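Session log. Operator J.P. requested a structure for one protein chain; no other inputs attached. Running the standard single-chain path with C-alpha cell output.
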Amino acid sequence: MNPNAASVTQAVLARHADEPGALLPILHEVQDALGHIPREIVPQIAEGLNLSRAEVHGVVTYYHHFRAEAPGRHVVQVCRAEACQAMGSDALMAHAEHALGCTVHGGHGSTSADGRYTLNPVYCLGLCASSPAVVVNDKLHARMTPAKFDKLVNALGVDA
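Structure written below.
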C-alpha cells in the first residue's frame, strides 16, 4: 500500500470519526487529496467506518464523481443527458474519443495511453439550455462543437 495514501486516509478518518454517515465526505476528501480512491485503501475506510469492503466499493463505483484509478493530467467530461444528446453530444463524444485517444465503454470513462487525458461521460452538468456541455479541468463550457472542442484541447498547451 502507498504509505502516503494510507496516512492521508487515516487522517481523514480521524477527522470524521464521530460523524454519522461520514462515508461520502470521507471519499470526497480522500479523492481531493489523492486524485482518486486507490483500491488498496478501501479496506482501511471500511474498517474505520465498520462497513464491509463491498459497501465502500459499491459507493465508489456507483457515483461517477469517484475514481478508482488516477486520472490523466486533464480531465474532460462530456454531458450525456437527454438535452445534450438532442443537441449532438453523441457526435461530440465520438469526436472527443478520437481526439483524446480514449474509449468510453459501458458508461465508464478511460484515460489515454500517454496519461494526458481522462474522458468521462457524465449525466447532466446543468447547462441544458446551452447544450451540449463539457467540463475540462473543472471548468464548464457550453454550446460545444467539435471545432470548439479541438480549440479548447489545443489551448491546454504543450504539456497537454
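Operator note: The chain has a mean pLDDT of 91.
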